[in-house]
Amino acid sequence: MGKSDFLTPKAIANRIKSKGLQKLRWYCQMCQKQCRDENGFKCHCMSESHQRQLLLASENPQQFMDYFSEEFRNDFLELLRRRFGTKRVHNNIVYNEYISHREHIHMNATQWETLTDFTKWLGREGLCKVDETPKGWYIQYIDRDPETIRRQLELEKKKKQDLDDEEKTAKFIEEQVRRGLEGKEQETPIFTELSRENDEEKGSFNFSSFFFNVDAFVLAFSLGPSALKTVGSTASVKRKESPQSSAQSKEKKKKKSALDEIMEIEEEKKRTARTDYWLQPEIIVKIITKKLGDKYHKKKGIVKEVIDKYTAVVKMIDSGDKLKLDQTHLETVIPAPGKRILVLNGGYRGNEGTLESINEKTFSATIVIETGPLKGRRVEGIQYEDISKLA
């Protein structure tokens, strides 16, 4: 058998060495040398170079331990920051990836005896967020980089600026409502008997001013209490018909058209304003995930609590079991016409109503709002996923 044969001890040893990691008990941290077997480790411990390293370490052992501890901590945190970022991850996953490198610092050369001790130390020092679960310890890196902090401050500043713009828009609309209503004269209502000179004459009523005041009241309700006071002071006022008031009515019509335009813009914004979460307490939902088995698949339950907008505690109607589920595992329940529903998304979010009819072709429904300032309004074309049956 030749020296370069595939099955020679030297060839086998070289292949084992090329794989990288070997047994930890045959590794010398002081000399940073990995021995292949027990005999090699024994020979290394008797060597002159190892004895010199031991003499150096015996002079100041704490200095060497601090050095290895610092190197281990820096390399571990660098891997956690670069590989996982600020995600929450199991500490053992990070550690296994760290020790896969051949030249890593072994934990038995540091001040920490176990990985749990090191994890707790990271939490005490404020380097990571740590929490213990039945599955073990989880860690989350806290990024204190000045550039990252600067980006976060810029995002917060931008959000605050967007909120300020919304407040300015609301104030502008409130001012427009006030200007549209301040020119109206308040007159005492005149009550007369309902009479007609001719029996064949037909009576007629004019409700235009009434509907205008109702719409203005709805808009003022959405803007704030100051606008409510302004609209309330001008509500239910009857005006006399006179030749002089015709010119004023034309001006008011112009103001009314501007107000109507603002109201249409606001209503359009409300109808198009949607969110990516829809869970609400006391609605009936259906479980669509198959991960829980056939016992719960396609079964209905009542949402008892909403956690962080996207998670719900659902109490099953049949068994009474309580489950904690994400909204992606649930879907809304459409009741029969005439039953009560809750609007979950869109401009009418949070309003209760009654289901009037269902359009199966467009997967939409027609409802009648029963709560809030829009009570009695009939809404058509609302999607199935935007409403759900009330418990």
TrEMBL record:
GO cellular component, one term: nucleus
Keywords: Coiled coil, Cytoplasm, DNA damage, DNA recombination, DNA repair, DNA replication, DNA-binding, Metal-binding, Methylation, mRNA processing, Nucleus, RNA-binding, Stress response, Zinc, Zinc-finger
Record-linked CDD domains: KOW_KIN17
SMART domains: Kin17_mid
Name this protein carries in UniProt: DNA/RNA-binding protein KIN17
Assigned protein family: Belongs to the KIN17 family.
Subunit structure: Associated with DNA polymerase alpha, RFC1 and cyclin A, in multiprotein DNA replication complexes. Also associates with replication origins at the G1/S phase boundary and throughout the S phase in vivo.
Organism of derivation: Prolemur simus (Greater bamboo lemur)
Protein encoded by which gene: KIN
Transmembrane parts of this sequence: none
GO molecular function: double-stranded DNA binding; RNA binding; zinc ion binding
Residue numbers spanned by region Disordered: 232-258
Biological role stated in the UniProt entry: Involved in DNA replication and the cellular response to DNA damage. May participate in DNA replication factories and create a bridge between DNA replication and repair mediated by high molecular weight complexes. May play a role in illegitimate recombination and regulation of gene expression. May participate in mRNA processing. Binds, in vitro, to double-stranded DNA. Also shown to bind preferentially to curved DNA in vitro and in vivo. Binds via its C-terminal domain to RNA in vitro.
Domain of life, per lineage: Eukaryota
Ranges where the DNA/RNA-binding protein Kin17 WH-like domain occurs: 52-178
Compartments in which it is found: Cytoplasm; Nucleus
GO biological process terms, semicolon-separated: DNA recombination; DNA repair; DNA replication; mRNA processing
Gene3D superfamilies with a match to the protein in the record: 2.30.30.140, 2.30.30.30, DNA/RNA-binding protein Kin17, conserved domain (1.10.10.2030)
SUPFAM superfamilies: beta-beta-alpha zinc fingers (SSF57667)
